[in-house]
Design goal:
With 411 residues, the chain is of the alpha+beta class. It folds into 2 domains: 198 residues, Jelly Rolls, CATH 2.60.120; 120 residues, Jelly Rolls. It contains 10 helices and 28 strands. The longest helix has 13 residues. The structure holds zinc ion. Zinc ion (ZN) binds next to loops.
């Protein structure tokens, strides 16, 4: 690993890139899931961390959040900044040294970190019905809560894999005792929790906003997932596709003395949020045009508030061949290209067809607050649309739509 980074090195990278930092791909394996093989990683590299670590099914974007995996490598989950064609320092270190000039003074003063990240999530099958703790719950184990959001990029979803449906929440009328009984049945095989939930068909080009403490069993589409910078979770389903889910994956982010307290584990769910009879109305997202011009359109893909707070948001920018645009945003963002090629500021943008593990790409960038506010010029130099996804931190886009607004606007 390179030597410790200095403020001067970060400043010089910012100057050289005119406030835009090139990032290296950050791959993350999960031992309890089966990779879906749709996020461009070369097939011979799916088990590059070692088969015992599980296959690589996630790529994290502009991340300063460590992946909470057992046996993790030292920098697992962290994005590296590429300078002169080499991995030079982590975005985490850069924010630690020059936080205000990267993410803006206001966000840095409030959080002392880049408090969000996004990932591609790519699995062969569904994953267990689980929730992410709230801030209050996560603080008991020294962590932060995690609201998250989904967008299913059409470019990565030619194939839906085994189960392109997501269970959300619990059927209205379900009682806490029903779910306590599911937890009692943990070691009898499938504990039957999905009998108390319903699944929604996932449609490429749409998304969902999921608050903490709300159960979800994500289906098998490739998902772009802007979320809070935390890796806490609790799985309430004991078996998925014939594979056993260890009890420890339910309890790992709850206080130790509560690990066998079934009532406590069920009380940890946001009950009203889970049994909401209008669940889709309150969580489903369709793209909404934010801005458009000659040969380009910028759409909101993730928006809406969680318990009244704007925590993250995301946009999809599409530029026709030969077109260009200058886009001004109110805050820093992490960006990834999903189709086409061109330029972002002075940098090349190139969507890769296949990436070897450890290889660098030109599809991912971090744009500082100052550069975003000044405006970033994108040019499509290719013969197909240039499509990028970018996500923002908290309180950057108070004017963003609310969940449900797609019903009253045209897309
Ligand atoms: Zn989740």
């Amino acid at each position: 690993m390179p030597a410790a980074v200095t403020p001067a090195a970060v400043k010089s990278a910012l100057d050289a890139g005119a406030g835009i930092l090139r990032l290296a791909p950050t791959w993350v394996p999960r031992s309890f899931l089966m990779p879906g093989r749709r996020i461009k990683l070369a097939p011979q590299d799916i088990y590059a961390f070692g088969a015992h670590r599980g296959g690589i099914d996630e790529r994290w974007f502009a991340s300063t959040t460590p992946a909470a995996n057992e046996n993790r490598t030292e920098d697992e989950g962290l994005s590296w900044v590429v300078v002169d064609g080499k991995k030079a320092f982590t975005l985490l270190d850069a924010v630690g040294l020059e936080g205000a000039s990267l993410i803006g003074k206001e966000m840095y003063d409030k959080y002392q970190r880049w408090p969000v990240y996004s990932k591609f999530f790519d699995n062969l099958g569904p994953i267990p019905h689980h929730m992410h703790q709230s801030d209050e719950q996560a603080s008991l184990v020294g962590q932060q809560g995690k609201p998250e959001s989904y967008y299913f990029p059409p470019q990565l979803n030619n194939l839906g894999n085994h189960f392109p449906y997501t269970f959300f929440g619990l059927e209205p009328g379900t009682t806490k005792q029903d779910i306590v009984r599911c937890l009692e049945r943990w070691n009898e095989g499938d504990n039957g929790i999905l009998n108390f939930s319903k699944a929604y068909r996932l449609q490429p080009g749409t998304g969902w906003l999921v608050p903490p403490c709300v159960l979800h069993a994500p289906g098998s589409l490739v998902t772009y997932e802007p979320q809070w910078g935390s890796d806490v979770f609790a799985m309430y389903q004991s078996m998925v596709e014939g594979r056993y889910v260890p009890w420890s994956l339910l309890t790992k982010d709850f206080p130790k003395e509560r690990h066998q307290d079934l009532q406590y584990l069920v009380d940890a769910l946001d009950w009203e949020g889970n049994v909401d009879p209008h669940f889709k109305d309150h969580h489903y997202l369709e793209p909404i045009v934010a801005e458009q011009g000659d040969g380009w359109v910028d759409r909101w893909i993730v928006y809406g508030k969680v318990k009244g707070k704007e925590l993250f948001s995301a946009k999809e920018l599409t530029i026709s061949p030969g077109a260009r645009c200058t886009i001004k945003d109110r805050g820093a963002y992490g960006l990834v290209a999903v189709q086409g090629c061109g330029k972002i500021g002075k940098h090349h943008l190139q969507t890769p067809a296949m990436i070897r593990f450890g290889e660098l790409t030109e599809d991912e960038y971090f744009v500082t607050e100052a550069a975003a506010r000044q405006g970033v010029t994108f040019v499509n130099t290719g013969s197909e649309p240039l499509v990028t996804l970018r996500y923002f931190g908290p309180d950057v886009n108070p004017h963003a739509p609310n969940v449900g607004d797609h019903k009253k606007t045209s897309t």
